Amino acid sequence: MGLVLGIVGLPNVGKSTLFRALTRVEAEAANYPFCTIEPNVGIVPVQDERLQKLNELIKPEKCVPATLKVVDIAGLVKGASEGEGLGNQFLSHIREVQAIAHVVRCFEDENIAHVTGKPSALDDLEIVETELILADLSQLERKLERLSKQMKGKSAKGSSPDANETAVFQKMHDHLASGKMASSLELSEEEEKTLQELQLLTAKPFFYVANLDEEELENPGPQFQALEKHAAQQGKSVIPVSAKLEAELSEMDEEESREFQEEMGLQQTGLDQVILRGYELLNQITYFTAGAPEVRAWEIQNGTQASSAAGKIHTDFEKGFIRAEVYHYSDLIQLGSENAVKEAGKLRLEGREYMVQDGDIMHFRFNV
Questions:
Q1: Helix (H) or strand (E) holding 366
Q2: Nearest C-alpha neighbor of 278 from the set 3, 23, 13
Q3: Helices 270-281 & 15-23, crossing angle to 10 degrees?
Q4: pLDDT 10s digits, 112-160
């Protein structure tokens, strides 16, 4: 499974507009609920300043960024966990993603319908999160019921029931029943493994995207401030964006977009922040391959060994792995060329068990 970020939220909060801006894939964005039924899917490049600098320094024939798969999931409504608004279908779409960007509308506009009549950032996010919690609770209740039947069957046969496993599921059930997300419960490594099979929705890493009026980007109003306070209490981040502005930027050519961003004083677009945050939540790091034919960023899980990182390029690289020639991006930028890196003794040889570091530049030697 590739890296997958799901965009969720109530209907008409700007999810499809944001998705369209992120991916430049035409997603229907209409002024009524459920204009998105099947999820829209797009692949977006991860903007990495290091890759751009490598491209400028090496001037390869081709430059390939890391990518992130983004899924625009239809808006959830109150009762989704019981099937309201095609809720079961939409919840199954969320189950398939690895991380969640929860879009919250932080502006009022009488021309844009709202499912409850009046947008309120905290009330809106509570509806979505409550439905996710209820869906997880329902799944845990079914699991506990099955375990109870199995334990009775084992007792009848004289075998010992697995009380420890049941205790873990019950612990999570009680936590969710108190209105808290699964991700906020501290678990041991063994408990996490036990719960993995359920793929709980509220256990997925997530962050908030606050959709603001363009005029409020520099000075967000009380709805954003309330959302930011709530997120801080949960240890989550909030990224302020104007989905409408981002959609306009995405339709400009590169030079026009850059000039407009400079006029607006934007160091980094909201979209870039969303992509990078999703990438970070998935515990990804980037290593690079760099040469005249191609400079490329490769996304791997933090803690990946060199042989497995080589397999990301081609399975033959992993099977016949001999060694990796490794130096760091910062050394190349400081010294100016690969030859200078070698002369400075900064290039080293690493074996298959070397843990790849973010920003490593690697050449693999293999024999098949």
A1: strand 360-366
A2: 3
A3: 90
A4: 656 666 778 898 899 889 989 998 999 999 999 988 888 777 655 554 4
